[in-house]
Amino acid sequence: MSSSPDDSFSSLPLPLLLLSEASTALATAFCVAPFVTVIDRAIIQNAAGTSHLWPAIKTGAREILLRPWNGMLRNPVFLLMWMVYGGTYVTANTIEVLSRRAKRDFVYPKFLGTSVTNIVLSTVKDRAYTRNFGKVAPKALPVYTYGLFWTRDMMTMAAAFTLPAPIAHHLHAHLDIPLTTAQTASQLILPCSIQLLSTPIHLAALDMYNRPDATLRQRAVQIRREYAKSVLARMGRILPALGIGGVLNGWLRERARAGAMSGWQEWGRGRRWVGAAGVRVIAKAEL
């Protein structure tokens, strides 16, 4: 008798289940990190005035495509991005697994866990990126810049990990949209849509770092000038990172759990066969 992937949450040994979830999370992050790295670096270079947005994107993409070893595994910029999304997806998957095992709701724990993880790791990443690609000499990030970065990240985590599931079920229940379609659409659209609100916060944080003495009016002009192309770039960044990445993570998790469940059942049958054979051998020896 076969089991569904959902049965694996309670049937598989916890260490095997956690290993499966962590592996799929890291694989997902590795797949999306190159795209996000190129766009994120270009946004910061553009905001700092060290390069225009699209030329910076082309340069970064060319580096990864033509020299993938140097552009990825030997590139601390890529490794930082892989760290951020690997840690975020590992946290999300782990919290969901532990909550399901305990038969508890995981929506809010997942939001809090992913927010804290993403904020801490993104702070490390943003600090390195801003210092490396800013136009001013490296200096300490002001507390209010951290605060804006944290606000930006919490908005994105809510849109990526908290809102898609309830909205998908609402669409399924009230508009008769197939659940799988609603889940995919919610996961792709919501993280991108929140960038309309979070991009001004992101640009303000960067401008406060690069131009600490600018007036409020000057900041508003800067944000208005950079908003359209930055929001498109951030949507292009978030779509692979948490939109497509979220769909890919879910797909990989289901298949990894199904594979682990099948392997665990085969191993169990093998153990029972060996045990039964051993009993027969002992019985014959006693005769």
Tell me briefly what this model is.
The chain crosses the membrane at residues 77-95. The chain is an all-alpha fold. 86% of the residues lie in helices and 0% in strands.
Task: Describe the structure in your own words.
The chain is mainly α. It has 11 helices and no strands. α2 (14-48) packs across α3, α2 packs antiparallel against α5 and α5 (76-101) packs antiparallel against α6. It is globular. It starts with 7 loop residues before the first helix and ends with a helix.
Question: Which features characterize this protein?
Answer:
disordered N terminus; 86% helix; mainly alpha; 0% strand; 11 helices; single chain; 287 residues
Radius of gyration: 23 Å
Instruction: Please give the alpha-carbon distance between the first and last residues.
Output: 36 Å
Our count of domains comes out at 1
Counting DSSP E segments of at least 2 residues, the number of strands comes to: 0
Biggest sheet details: none
What fraction of the residues are assigned to beta strands by DSSP? under 5%
From the spread of the alpha carbons, the general shape counts as: globular
Listing every helix as H and every strand as E from the N terminus to the C terminus, the arrangement reads HHHHHHHHHHH
- The residue ranges in which pLDDT falls below 50 over 5 or more consecutive positions are 1-5
Number of helices: 11
Helix-and-strand structural type: mainly alpha
What number is the mean pLDDT?
85
Query: How much helical structure, as a percent, in the residues?
Result: over 70%
